[in-house]
Design goal:
Structural class: mainly beta
Number of strands: 23
Distance between the termini: 32 Å
Number of helices: 0
Strand content: 35-45%
């Protein structure tokens, strides 16, 4: 969603499907919500300047220049079909100081000219050091990356590959996975055959030179979806089953080409989780949603989309 001051707008990164992709963009779509239905209320507003054959996957809202206005941080990628190698770029789009929905495209600033491509997380692990970090799951260039920036001017201080053996990294989240008070990385990769895995990485104190120790939280997500270019798993999401819950997070995993949704429940051993199949959806499960949706009772609900069957399955942790 766009910031509250915009009103009810959806943010749509566009152009991800290859090889039929066109030049993508970032669009704002005004919506009307009356409590029972949601409808589009305007034509899409493109805030990016078209860059041929580059497409987008996600957006983070962050004030990047200290003017009190939220800007857009996004990554884009060009994946040549025939010749050349993939190229990812991390950029931010400066929100205009007046009439942001009319003064388009927004001014574009480069953060990294060759690096993050699709999914990334922007975080500040140590607010006292005047820098911030971007962890990037780089699917097309097949590694997990770290990019560290100066907070005052957004200049890149250094970058490094954290794992070049993971293959096509697919998602990344910063969360304490073993309840020791220190933040970790939750990561998936996205491969064919027997599928990939869900991994945890310990974040060292020395980001520049320290070892990001890897732990396998779950593996064995065999691809069952027919057709070419089918991979598993998809995204993973850490959450609490109840608002009062303390301890290691629970993890939902969208199986993508495995046609299943999974729940990882924590066990006593460090970085240890048990994997359970929630549902065999009979089709791709590319992403999931969760939150306290029903009754405002503190219990989490989550939703599994069965893409091929045009069906959404809903579940709750609330006692029945």
């Amino acid at each position: 969603m766009a910031p509250a001051e915009f009103g009810a707008y959806l943010v749509v990164p566009d152009g991800f499907l290859v090889p039929l992709k066109e030049t993508g963009g970032i669009y704002l779509l005004k919506i009307n919500c009356n409590g029972t239905t949601t409808t589009l209320a305007s034509e899409p507003i493109e805030i990016t300047k078209p860059k041929r054959s580059y497409f987008y996957h996600m957006v983070v809202w962050q004030d990047m220049n200290g003017d009190g206005l939220l800007d857009v941080v996004t990554a884009r990628v060009n994946d040549p079909i025939l010749l050349g190698k993939p190229s990812g770029q991390l950029i931010w789009l400066e929100q205009p100081k007046s009439e942001p929905l009319d003064n388009v495209p927004w001014t574009e600033h480069y953060l990294v000219v060759d690096g993050p491509e699709t999914v990334f997380v922007l975080t500040d692990l140590n607010p006292s050091d005047d820098q911030y970090e971007v962890f990037a799951a780089q699917f097309f260039t097949k590694h997990l990356g770290l990019y560290v920036f100066a907070a005052k001017n957004n200049s890149l201080l250094y970058s490094r590959y954290l794992d070049e053996t993971i293959g096509p990294a697919y998602m990344v989240e910063v969360v304490d996975l073993n309840d020791d008070g220190a933040l970790d990385l939750l990561v998936t990769n996205h491969v064919g055959g027997e599928g990939g895995g869900v991994f945890g990485y310990e974040i060292p104190t020395d980001l520049r030179n320290g070892v990001f120790k890897r732990h396998t939280l779950a593996h064995g997500f065999p691809v069952t979806e027919s057709g070419s270019n089918q991979f598993a798993p998809g995204f993973a999401y850490s959450f609490k089953p109840h608002i009062s819950y303390t301890g290691k997070p629970y993890i939902l995993v969208a199986g993508d080409g495995s046609q299943k949704a999974y729940l990882l429940t924590p066990s006593e051993a460090d970085f240890s989780y048990n994997k359970t199949i929630i549902i065999s959806a009979g089709g791709v499960v590319g992403s999931m949603g969760f939150g306290d949706i029903i009754g405002n009772d503190g219990w989490a609900e989550f939703f599994v989309p069965g893409y091929d069957g045009n069906t959404i399955f809903g579940y709750t942790f609330a006692p029945q």
